[in-house]
Design goal:
By secondary structure, the chain is of the alpha/beta class. It is about 40% helix and about 25% strand. The chain contains 13 helices and 15 strands. Helix 11 packs across helix 12. The longest helix has 29 residues. The two termini are about 40 Å apart.
């Protein structure tokens, strides 16, 4: 049993490490551009001759034009490079490369500015809207430099200006928006929330592993039985002598089922109600599949669920009727209400069956008996229709089984 505990603890620690690693990776990598690493130039406050390659930011409030754009293999635009107003006097321009939603916003802003200027209106930047772009600024090279030069040649011809004059106005640099600088804040919030959820989940799993919460049922059993050594000896014999079938171990003494990182354990005498259960999965009201389970409900109000296949659900139920013959089998709304509000009657019935099966004559002196048996003396091992429930509402109303057969 100690080995089983170590196995589950190791699984939980590994899962916690994975969740923490993914959460931290998303948070740090996705937001690395927001981290204060190195000096960040504010292009709104410096002149062209003060620009140096490295981290930078700019407020995009006035766009003169774009000088190049790029498309993917399907002809869809993926990037556009703009001349954005910069400097303390606002009389110089620098290239800004944008993608995604920031590109869409910049293109709209550029057109709105053109419309307002064409109509002779005074520009209201608060109304037009402005935004900040962060990234890395570098000198233009390669194709980008060629596009820049081509644009300036057209301007030189149109405005009758020299190339040097234009280079003094349009700085030969481009601010390449980082992923952070090109995203919308809503996207940032969604990602950071996802990262935090993963980190918190990882911490929760790790705490659960360290304190053994994933095996709480076992620890409760050991604590109830006084001698820890004797309790673990009984559990060791159970695990060693009881092979796992259908994902669970069960004998006259104990029941155990593993679900991922957790383990459900109970004394067999505390399993009082068993029934099959179906979950129907739907997408836009169209059934996409079904998942089959067998549910076991315990005297303490808890529940275990064993996933089965469609063609062996009845086989699993029949197996449990042999292994836990005193339990109540089958589902009905009456049983559900009784389990929730009058569980003592179900417990008394299960105790009565077990005492009768074992020939315990003195049971009536220690166990409160119902006025009349609420179940047949032997369980009916034929399996009635299973409860069928859709996600998310798991409502087994269609199930016709009853313990009052």
């Amino acid at each position: 049993m100690k080995q089983l505990e170590r196995k589950f603890r190791s699984r939980s620690v590994i899962l916690a490490a994975v969740l923490l690693a993914i959460g931290l990776l998303i948070t740090l990598v996705y937001f690395r551009d927001y981290l204060p690493i190195g000096e960040e130039q504010n292009l709104d406050e410096i002149t062209v001759d003060q620009i140096h390659e490295g981290r930078a930011r700019i407020t995009v409030y006035y766009i003169y034009d774009y000088y190049c754009y790029f498309t993917d293999e399907y002809g869809k635009e993926v990037q556009r490079d703009y001349f954005v107003c910069m400097g303390p006097d606002g009389d110089k321009y620098v290239g800004v490369e944008l993608r995604g939603k920031k590109n869409d916003k910049a293109y709209q802003l550029m057109n709105d500015i053109y419309d307002a200027e064409s109509a002779g209106e005074e520009l209201d930047y608060d109304k037009l809207g402005y935004f900040t772009v962060k990234g890395n600024i570098q000198k233009l090279t390669g194709d980008d430099l060629d596009y820049y030069e081509d644009y300036l040649k057209e301007c030189a011809s149109y405005y009758d200006m020299s190339m040097d004059e234009l280079r003094d106005i349009f700085a030969p640099y481009v601010l390449i928006a980082s992923k952070a600088g090109a995203r919308d804040e809503k996207t940032d919030y969604m990602v950071v929330i996802a990262g935090i959820i993963l980190i918190v989940s990882g911490i929760g799993v790790l705490i659960s592993a360290l304190f053994g919460n994933h095996m709480k049922d076992l620890k409760d059993f050991v604590n109830r039985n006084g001698s820890e050594e004797a309790a673990y000896a009984r559990l060791d014999r159970f695990v060693e002598s009881t092979p796992e079938r259908y994902g669970m171990r069960v004998n006259d003494e104990f029941f155990m089922v593993t679900n991922g990182m957790s383990l459900t354990f109970a004394e067999t005498k505390d399993v009082i109600w068993i029934y099959p259960y179906i979950v129907t999965h739907k997408t836009y009201f169209v059934t996409t599949g079904k998942t089959y389970y067998v549910r076991l409900r315990f005297a303490n109000g808890k529940m275990a669920q064993v996933q089965t296949k469609k063609d062996n659900n009845e086989e699993v139920m029949n197996y449990l009727t042999r292994m836990i013959p005193d339990a109540i089998f089958g589902y009905s709304d009456d049983l559900e209400r009784m389990f929730n509000k009058d569980r003592g009657r179900m417990i008394a019935e299960v105790n009565r069956r077990r005492d009768e099966r074992l020939g315990n004559i003195g049971a009536s002196e220690t166990v409160e008996q119902p006025a009349e048996p609420i179940m047949p003396e032997t369980p009916d091992i034929s399996i009635p229709d299973m409860p069928d429930a859709s996600i998310p509402d798991q409502n087994p109303d269609d199930y016709s089984g009853s313990m009052f057969n």
